[in-house]
Amino acid sequence: MKEYKFDPSLNILYKELNNLDYIFNPRTIAIIGATDKENSVGKTLVENLVNSSFQGEVFLVNPKRDSILGKKAYPSIDKIDKKIDLAIIATPSKTVPGIIDELEAKNVSAAIIISAGFKELGESGKKLEDQILQKKKKIRIIGPNCLGIMNPSLNLNATFAKDMPKSGNIAFISQSGALGTAVLDWSLKEEIGFSAFVSIGSMIDVDFGDLINYFGDDPNTKSILMYMENISDPRAFLSAAREVALTKPIILIKAGRTKESAKAALSHTGALAGSDEVLDAALKRVGILRVNTINDLFSMNEILSKQPIPKGPNLAIVTNAGGPAVIATDSLIIHGAKIATLQDSTYEK
Asked: With b meaning 16 or more CB within 10 Å and e meaning fewer, what string describes 195-214?
């Protein structure tokens, strides 16, 4: 586990975190809520995992089925006689706290809660999340209200999106499942590859800070791209980003700049947005590049991922015309860079 130089107190926090490899590199997966019902999330999950080249074992759980799409179904998780690394939950929200209790009893390492119907719906949904947290002991949880995760290098599609992008070196993290789906569709057309795709939903447990820390240590990830509506743990997020941004580009779209969009985010994922000006300053301080559009997100990645991380803010402009030099100078200064002062010996070269 990484040691944090800037904020040593966080070493204790991160050493207590379980390894997220059980989410992104599972050997055994159980789909709870697996079904053969047409146009259902449960069926799509089964098709994505069973009818794929994923090399791990996949178990189906449904108390009302003996088999699903020709594969044996188990009435409950405790009837499976193997250790389960990852459980994917696609059942009604009111059933989820009890399922988490069963997963803890089975010593399941991680879970993805696809189900919606939690704090994005108000107080009743928030109470369900509180019940989940009361049941949770060691298990790590992605979600709820999310699309799921992908690891293309393992042919692992633990989402209800039909198509998986090619393998690459971008880790993409989205708080919006719909936006994540749009990015996946676009990436297929543009032939952009990912080391991982993560839809994290309401972040009841695993959040942006955890994932930045994980992908910062992942040798297959060269850059981290994110769509964010709120930060659940600002201190851990900024400390992780400060360390990882020294070696890998972190590029972010942070929605909720206006009061109106912050209100929309609250109804979408239950996200409470803070002061945008304060956040903007904090992001710059830790080395995160903030952009406004998906096109900018990937354009900046194309530039930064192919260049070494700058050693400092001083830059030189090489141009054959005065006008572009003036425009470039304005842009650099406005965005926090400095124009390097060259020595006479440099000019002479």
From this structure: bbbbbbbbbbbbbbbbbbbb
